[in-house]
Structures are given as C-alpha cells and as structure tokens.
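Quick one, T. Sequence first:
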Amino acid sequence: MPRLASRTQDFLTFQVVELFKQAQALQAAGRDIISLGIGEPDFTAPPQVVEALERAARAGLSGYSAPAGLSALREAIAHYYETEFGARVDPSRVIVTNGASGALALACAALVNPGAGVMMPDPSYPANSNFVLASGGRPQLVPSTAAKRYQLSARDVRENWKPHTQGVLIASPSNPTGTSVAPAELAELLREVRERDGYTLMDEIYLGLSYEQAPRSALTLDDDIVVINSFSKYFTMTGWRLGWLIVPQDIAGIVEKMAASLHICAPTLAQHAALACFLPDTLKVYQQRREAFRQRRDFLLQAFDGMDLRVPVKPDGAFYIYADLSNQGLDSTTFSHRLLHESGVAAVPGVDFGPAHGHHTMRFAYTVGLDRLEEAATRIGAFLETLREPAL
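Structure tokens:
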C-alpha cells in the first residue's frame, strides 16, 4: 500500500456528506425525509440559463476556454460586482474556476506557504481547513462567540497572530451561522491583517443572499484582498461547478499561469450558460428567490422560538440557522442521528464546523419550500416534546 502524505491524517471528515448518505438510504427504503442538511438550494438554474447552455452546446462551443475564463464572462462578473456590491474591478483580475472549491484551492496554492498558519473563526465551513492543509498550511481556528456573531474580530487577529501566521480566511455571510461581519469591524480587521503584512481570503459565496441591508463587497474596504465567489448558491447552479476568484492586479498573471496547469479551465459550456445569469430578466428571478429565502428564514426562526429551540444570533444572510441545543439534553451528534431516524428530518451536527460550540449546536438549512418547512417544524417540535417526556 502506498504511504500516504502525513497531511491526510489531519483532514476533517465532512459530516454533512455522511448525513446525506444516511438520508438517501432512508429515502431509498421508502421513508419521507425532509432535508435541512446539505447546503444546496432547491431552486435550479432559471430557463434563461438552461437555454443559453443549449444554444452553446448546439453551436459546438464546448472546447477549452482560456485558463482564466471567457473574456465576456470575466467582464460580466466585474460589472456585476460594481453594480451589485459597489466594487470596481478590472476584468483582468477575475479568474473563472471550477466552482468556489476550485477557487479556494487555487488561492491557497498561490498564497499558503508550508507550515504557515491561516486564521479562521470557529465555527467555520470544514472544507476551508482542508484546503489549507492540502496546500501544506496549518489552520488556526479561533473560538468565536455569539457576541461577535461567530465571526473573527480585529481583536482576535491582534491576540492570536503567531510568528507562523500569514493570513486569515473569512466568510461573510457565513456557513454555518448565516451571519455577516459588520462593515466597520471588517475594515478594522482588514487593517490589522495588512499591518502584519498578511493576506485576507474573503469568502463572499453568500453575499448575494443578504437580507437586512444592501450587500457591499469587502473589496470596497481593501482592494488587495482575494475574493472567492460562486455560481452555486445565489445563482442556484450547484452541479455546474463554476466559480471565480478576484485577485490583486499584481498577482493575477501568476494565478492565471497556475490555473493553466492545475485546472486547465472551468467547464466551458457552463461558462457560456452563466452569461445569461446577468441578463436583467434573470436577475429579477434571483431577486425573487432571495425574497423566498428570506421568508423561509423568518418562518423557521419564529417556529424555533415557539418550540424553545434557541438561536443565539439572528442570521442576516445565506440560508442557514445555527441553533443552540444546550437546553435539550442531547449532544449534537446524537440529536442529529435521532432527529433523522425518528422524525425524518436531516440537519447537520455542529461538530462539523469546529470544536468550540460543536457539541451543543445544529445547522439547519432552509433550502426547501415553505410547505416542507412547515412539516419539518411540526416534526422537530414533536421530537423536542419526546425529549422532555419523563423516562418511565
């Protein structure tokens, strides 16, 4: 048997994938399972996008693109960032990638030195740590709190920056908490990183799904950060595997050269189709879907409040609710297992997102319609009642 690289011992198991497998097995056995687990919208690509794909396929536009992506798509993304998020971006800084995962892998390969620390909050999306590990780096999880909206703060950077630390990885809005970093706090944090000659990897995958105020990109605060985004979540194209990086101008050529070897190019047909995402009629569809997600969030928050399932921080974006189980008498792994097998509702245990709060938290994804959410709330409420019944 080949000897594995030592880094493989540190890779985190992605519990949501294991949960998804269990839920699928139960469904195959005839159970009605409501999935609030995997972070995949129930919406799919709008007709305009599908039609654009069909036209490109019929026209034979399926060959390799340039490593950085189609020029028209890079221009469309740059224009979108200016009109929607207030950031002026030269299209030459946009690198189209194989999903946000491809973007993060490429960014880490370009920036993370062997043994270097990359600071991120606990809780965080677990794959972020694995991308850092795959590049030879060392994830530095800093426990956060509800008072800090489960995000990194400037004070965290000051107090936890070590000699081996070289950068930070932030998601705003966040997976698993759905919370954003306030602009003033984010500006201070970015200054602290810059003063230490560090880099910031900024995950803006859920930026389009912001509910409380008009979203602004972190690029409006610091133009030298590296931004990761995707067509999967807001644009509801998960399986199309298309994302992008926005990088500082002085490293764009180097990152493009790396992409040519590591990725060749992002799926070309998907790139042609994605151009339709930015048409006025298509953008209206996405705005309507964002409002649907907001309605789902509000419904589920109210339902949880009525069943005494505590949510320490109201999520302002993405499609997740991060709930506290401290008063339920079960750890998150047991809670998740029993909720799935006894009530037919899949939700992810907090241990997937870090040790600080993992054993007493759950992530619920409101990625199903209101009718199914209502049924899920009924089932969750009934399950919680069984936990309160005295043992015979």
